[in-house]
Amino acid sequence: MNVRISTVIRTVGWACVGVAAAAVAALIAAGARLEPAAVAVPAAAAGAVALIFVFRPAAGIGAFLVLVLFSHTYVSPWPSTDVRYFDEISVAFFVVASALMNRGRLARLRPGLKEGAVAIVVAAGILSSLLGSVPAETWIPGLLLLIKGIAFFYAVSWLRLEVAEVEGVGVLLLGVASVVLFLGFFEALDPVGFQRITGIQPSEEVRGGLRVVTSVFYHSSFFGWFTAYVSLVLFARFMVLRQWWALAAAVLLSVGTLISGRRGPVVGVLAALGVGGVWAWSQRTSLRAMLRIVAPVAAILIILTVVTAPVLSSFYARTVEEYGGGNLGEILSPDPDPAAIAGAHPRLALYVASLAIARDYFPLGAGLGRFGSYMSGANYSPLYERYGLTDVHGLRPNDPNAVSDTFWPMVLGELGPIGLVGLTAFVGLLLHRLWAVASRTASLPLRALALGSLFVFVQGLAASLTAATYVAPPAYFIFGAAAAVWAVTRTEAHPVGNG
């Protein structure tokens, strides 16, 4: 058997072992009634995955990603078990394990611009919280939530990984995506049969005349995001390696993204493929060579657009209507009137209010857990009343479910312009590096990996405009893909440098 194929199969196999071991460990801990259960049970599951990670790092990462994904589905591997903190505990284990396993390499590395940008973000968060007298039980969890994706990036980037190992994780996720997509099509075509066979209540939501599909997920946004994520990796594989099966699979997954009824993933896919067109133009040796890469993708996108135009036209017309209403300018006034702001869309209200907070709490912001974050809703922040947002749907004290519907307003409001510059610089440096590897490395498999990582990073950026992407589960997939490029580039000593 080809060494490359055997590595892929071995990675998939050990990842499946990791998933099973985590499920068993969680159930044993729950049955033993260890206290506090909210920590003991997820810690047991995280410990099982970390053990796989130590001996088979790529497989451990794959098991972790699958478990994070399925913790948001109706087919969770740990039914009736509280594992809310599984991902945070796992990341802590990964960071410690990766640092110990690679301490020799780390001793030779020197902090660069990325690390400086992260230091600015962390310092801005801590200082703003202390100056703003934010309670420790609010700002410390807020800081951990903010940096968990970045911590995962470093835990993975320090590893010694080969392209074939990363491809093994990709095969695992493609297998999961195939099952999820099949069930999504089943739900779309026969909702009654879907419920009868799976026991899952199909979505009854209709958006723009389109019946929303959730597949096995609790919410259609996860279905839309995950199908978009895997499709973009496959589009990149086609563009670099010319594998037609990858293009066909990417198209099918893109249909899944469309029937999720979510605007963000669709816009993200279009943005990423737009970047792909620019990349192809920069790589061309001739017009014919560029067209061979771009033309099939463009043709398929045009066909999908024409076929879905009747539905999508009303879908996006409704978007314009949703974002109207409310006097947003009132938020910027010295004494905002909640009644005048009440009709505003919560996301727009969060954006405008973040500008007002950055103005009033210049230059470090109001502190972690004070605005636009999960903690600002869990411990309802006084800033929502200060800026007249208490009557806005989704931002009210008794129902703050939309406070984390965006990402960048949280950064600007809690960390101020300084924190915003630091995090923007970190993201920008990652994008620059991914572009460089996708453009200059001689290894075609690594180039495909880097281009796919670039695509999902662009899609994540687009999603972060209307979702808390970088503090939510997608952060692990986005930062993990980028980190894999770092790890492989260092391990296989490709000439683009260590970054």
Give structural notes.
With 499 residues, the protein is mostly helical. The chain has three domains: 99 residues, no CATH class; 181 residues, no CATH class; 160 residues, no CATH class. 71% of the residues lie in helices and 1% in strands. The chain has 20 helices and two strands. Strands 1-2 form a two-stranded antiparallel ribbon. A hairpin with a 2-residue loop joins strand 1 and strand 2. Helix 7 runs parallel beside helix 20, helix 10 runs antiparallel to helix 11 and helix 19 packs antiparallel against helix 20. The chain is globular. The mean pLDDT is 89.
Summary of the model, kept short:
With 499 residues, this protein is mostly helical. It is built from 20 helices and two strands. It has three domains: 3-101, no CATH class; 127-155 and 326-444 and 467-499, no CATH class; 163-322, no CATH class.
Fill in the keyword field for this structure:
single chain; 499 residues; mainly alpha; 3 domains; two-stranded antiparallel ribbon; 20 helices; 71% helix; 1% strand; globular
Strand content: under 5%
Structural category is mainly alpha
**Poorly predicted regions:** none
* Beta strand count: 2
Helix content estimate: over 70%
Provide the fold topology:
Blueprint: H1 3-31, H2 37-55, H3 57-70, H4 86-101, H5 103-108, H6 113-131, H7 136-157, H8 163-189, H9 191-198, E1 206-207, E2 210-211, H10 220-241, H11 244-259, H12 263-283, H13 287-322, H14 338-341, H15 346-360, H16 374-378, H17 383-386, H18 408-440, H19 444-464, H20 474-491
Antiparallel strand pairs: 1-2
